[in-house]
Amino acid sequence: MQLLASLTSPYARRLRILIAELGLDIPVVPTAPMDNPAALLTANPLGKVPALVLGEGTAIVDSPVIAAWLLARSPTQTLMPTTGTAHWHARTTEALTDGILDAAIILRFNTGQGVTSGVWTDRQYAAIDRTLAALPARIGASPYEDICIVIACEYLDLRFAAIDWRTTQPALAALQSRLTDTPALIATRPPQ
Length: 192
Ligand SMILES: N[C@@H](CCC(=O)N[C@@H](CS)C(=O)NCC(=O)O)C(=O)O
Prior knowledge:
Elements: E1 2-5, H1 10-21, E2 28-30, H2 38-43, E3 51-55, E4 58-61, H3 63-72, H4 84-112, H5 119-134, H6 143-159, H7 165-168, H8 170-179, H9 183-188
Parallel strand pairs: 1-2
Antiparallel strand pairs: 1-3, 3-4
Bound molecules: glutathione (GSH).
Glutathione binds near residues 6, 11, 33 and 63.
Pfam family, one: GST_N_2
Organism: Sandarakinorhabdus glacialis
Protein name: Glutathione S-transferase
């Protein structure tokens, strides 16, 4: 079994943290999606990381699906509630923080193509701002949700230093500072 992942991917980072926190032994194979390596395209025709290769011709793709698979393999885990309202709350926090990453990545690719303004750009920034404002109410709901929130915030630090989420959302800053020395977070911080 292998996790194909780029070391800067925030989606993959969440899984690398889960793997560490759950004590699973799944090697990470550094994979640059934009190079279209054959192993990635075989595992995931979308050409995106992360992808979890289970073995002979079987792979799981999309980080929330892979996260669910990892958590299901660890029946005694306490990172994410597995049933009821708390479970769907956690899945929604996961989706909201993924949405921040999706919007940030759209902005990043647009910038790379010289598109730095316009309705679509404004829409991504507005989605990021609104979602950041919604996250403080979700802090502390479960360890997994806190991890998802910190990963999204730290990805903004990496790629969008101008988004000053620490000033606009001090509760998120307090969470990030409380978790900053978590070994799995330290071990998975992207190379600067
Ligand atoms: N929804 C996917 C998003 C994955 C994603 O966008 N990964 C980026 C790297 S951070 C990628 O592989 N991009 C290459 C591409 O879009 O072609 C997930 O959660 O796994």
